[in-house]
What does this fold into?
Amino acid sequence: MSAPARPARSVSPARRRAQRVVARAPWWLAVLALAVGGLLWVYPFIWMVSASLKSSVEIFGAGLSLVPETPVWENYSRAWGDAGFGVYMLNTVVVTVATVVIVVVRCALCGYVLGRYRFRGSRLVMGVLVATLFVPTGYTIIPIVKLSLELGLLNSLAGMTLALSGSANVASILIYAGYFRQLPKELEEAAVVDGAGFLRVFFKIMLPLSMPVTATVALLTFLFTWNAFFLPLVFSFSRPELRTLSVGMQAFVGENATDWSGMAAAGVISIVPIVALFLFLQRYFVDGIAGAVKS
It folds into this structure.
């Protein structure tokens, strides 16, 4: 004879709430950890914006306080006009846009060939490209300067652009190759039947389809070129009017003192275009990385 069933034990509402809190504890811990990490990551940038509105005395006297006593907007006018950041901004925009265009077209063509075609020596070409990742940038500066000097491009924005866009950009090529490899071959076959050549197929069909990857490569190249310091310093050493924003930061460092508030204002001016571009291209950036990894 079976034992009688025990009546179900009722659970109080307070205990149910406690059980829900315990069950959701890992989620709350993850959110808390991400919030703390995000605050630690963003705080220096927030502090830089705050310092750009303070005097140099208040920067050191206020400690970690983020609220300026009296906003000093003259720091921005001093950085833009007196320090020449208006000219440096124009130089940086010209060099960066030209470099992005050159790198995107070159990497897209190279990635398209390596991703869609199989030819003798393709593995060797890919191996040589990957090997260039291990060459330090400082080792190539002497041949770059020597070649630019022979071509008469050393003290010019054109020479600076060619030097910045002349690197291998292996990561961008691999992203393009991985994306083009997953596209169906029927697209090219239909275009060839209609009489389209290699360049027409690439520029009219394949390149427009790779917009997420193009946005990713453009953003990465933009960040690299916008923040470049070593090559722009070499190419503008004898002509200060050719300085970019990163090189122009040295204008706030004097022999006996440093204009910290002006440097902070210049830093804010330099970082605003990067943030705006990322906010505009972030959706394409994520899609491009996801597509390349998926392939």
